[in-house]
Amino acid sequence: MGELAAESRILLEVRDTTIFRQSDPLKLDDWIMNNSYSYETVNPPLPEIEVCTQLQRDLERYFPYTASVEKRVRRAVVLSRKNKIPPTEGLNSPIIDSLSGKLHFKNVRMNLLLNYLKPLTDWYGILIDESESPVIDALTLSWPVSNWKKLVSELKRNGWSLTFQDKQMDMLVIKDKPVGTR
Fold first, then answer.
1. Nearest 5°: phi and psi at 3?
2. How many other C-beta atoms can be found within 10 angstroms of the C-beta atom of residue 99?
3. Is there a cis peptide before residue 119, judged by omega within 30 degrees of 0?
4. What's the pLDDT tens digit per position in 2-14?
């Protein structure tokens, strides 16, 4: 399921969302006891699609919900780059300069920049990488990421952009089963 496992890629179209999420940390233990399940199946070797189909059938048999992957338009933060970087291996790690409060990326794998930008998904939802850059050649950003305008300005200075866009994407949609089909 990969990227659909991220909470920002799940849509709950159900009457009672508290079954899926508990925001009160003081009630979390009770919520886990009442709303967690263990699922196990023993199968002969099957193609992945058949295992997923069986899992979906079992979930629909035992729970009052349906789940499907649907195309939906969602607001997302999109990272892009003007000039593409030729494919190379990212060999280094980002370096934090604690005196200047800067994080320096030089010959670093792209996933490390995406990890740095992870707080954006907490604030704004979905982050999409359209840079087509496997490696960051050279980039310096403030550490930690906390100021949107400053981050956009620093990225722009280095040939990157960070914008809000409406994007069509696959979403995991969970719905109540229609009445009479439980």
1. -65, -20
2. 6
3. no
4. 455 566 788 899 9
128 within 8 A of 80, measured Cβ to Cβ: no
First to last CA, the chain: 26
What's the pLDDT band for 72 if we cut at 50, 70, 90? very high
Going through 21-142 in order, the beta strands assigned E by DSSP cover 65-81, 95-97, 102-109, 126-129, 135-142
Q: What burial class does residue 139 get, using C-beta atoms within 10 Å of its C-beta: 0-12 exposed, 13-18 middle, 19+ buried? A: buried
What is the phi/psi pair of residue 18, to 5°? -65, -20
Using an 8 Å Cβ cutoff, are 88 and 107 in contact?
yes
15 three-class SS: coil
Token pair, residue 134, equals 């496997």
CB of 63 within 8 A of CB of 144? no
Q: How far apart are CA 148 and CA 117, in angstroms?
A: 11
**pLDDT attached to residue 148:** 84
Q: Which residue has the higher pLDDT, 108 or 182?
A: 108
